[in-house]
Amino acid sequence: MRRFLPSLSALHAFDASVRHLNFTRAAEDIGITQSGISRQIRNLEGFLGLSLFERSGPRLILTESGATYYEEVSRLLGKLEEASIDAVRGRKTQGILKIGLPPTLMRRWGAAVLTAFSSTHPQAWFEVYPCRHDLEFATSELDFALVRGTGNWSGARSHLLFAEELVVVGSPELLPAEGLPNDEALLGCPLIQNSARPSLWLHWLRGAGVSYNSRIYGPRLPTTDMIIECAIRGMGLAVVPEIHVREEIAEGRLRPAFRRRQPSGESFYLCYPESRIGSAGVRAFRDWFLAEFQRQRQFLPPAPGLHQR
C-alpha cells in the first residue's frame, strides 16, 4: 500500500513556519517565496484535514493540533537529517564525540585543545557545540563540556582544571603603565558591567576592601568577549577572568589596573555525563585531556606577571 505521507517540501515549510511563526521569514529561511510557503501549508492542512495555524493579521498562532503534530515532525526531521549526515560521512553520528564549549572559551583556547587532540588521535571524529556554563548534563546530548562552576552538576562527572581568577583591565588610553594608584581610584572610572554576571564588580570591590555607598555606574554588556573588545577600545575598565585576557595584556592592548588577581570562587572543569562513562571514546578523550593539561597546560597562553591577592 502507498504510505500516507505528506511531501517533504510541505514538512520543510511547516518546520520553518513553526520556528518563525511568520510565513515571510520562513520563506527567507528556506529560500522560497512567501506565496510558496503559504501554498505548502495549505496543501499540508488539506492532506491532514487539520488546521495547523490560526491567522491573526500578520501573526501566526500554532493550533493545539499543529503543536502536537510539530513535536513529532521536528523529531523525525532531526532523525532524517542525522541519517543523511551519516550517509555523507560514512559513519554513525553516534560515534562522533560531541564537545561543548561556552563561546568565550571556544574562541580563546578551544582551538588549541581540539587541534592537539586531533593531531594525536587522527581517527577520532568530533563536533563542537556552543553551550552554557549551567548545562543540564542529564538531558544534554554532549559527551564533554569545558565549563565554569563549583564542580556540582547534576548527572555529571567533573574534573577540576584551574581556579578562575579575576583581573581589572583597561586600555592604555585609560590606564597608566603602572596602573591605578589605589583601589579607591576605581570608583572614579567608568566600569563596564557584565549583564550575564552582574555581581563581578561587587565581588571585586568587597575582596579589595573598597567602601562604596552608591550604585556602580557603567554600560552593561551581554558577553565577556564584547566586554573585552569594548575595554580595548577605551569604553571603561572591566573586571574579567584573567585567563581570557592574557594575550591582550601581553600584546599591550590592555593593561591591568593592579598587579594582582582575585579568585572568583568558581573554577573551570572538564565534565561529562555519568551515562557516558562506559564509552571508549569518552574515556580516551578524558584520559588524554587530563594527562596533557596537567603535564603542560599547553592549551593556555602564558600568564602575565600578576599576583594573586
TrEMBL record:
Highest taxon listed in the record's lineage: Bacteria
Keywords: DNA-binding, Transcription, Transcription regulation
The keyword Transcription regulation is annotated on this UniProt entry: yes
Location of the HTH lysR-type domain: 6-63
A Pfam family per the record: LysR_substrate
Protein family membership: Belongs to the LysR transcriptional regulatory family.
Name by which UniProt lists this protein: LysR substrate-binding domain-containing protein
The species this protein was found in: Sinorhizobium numidicum
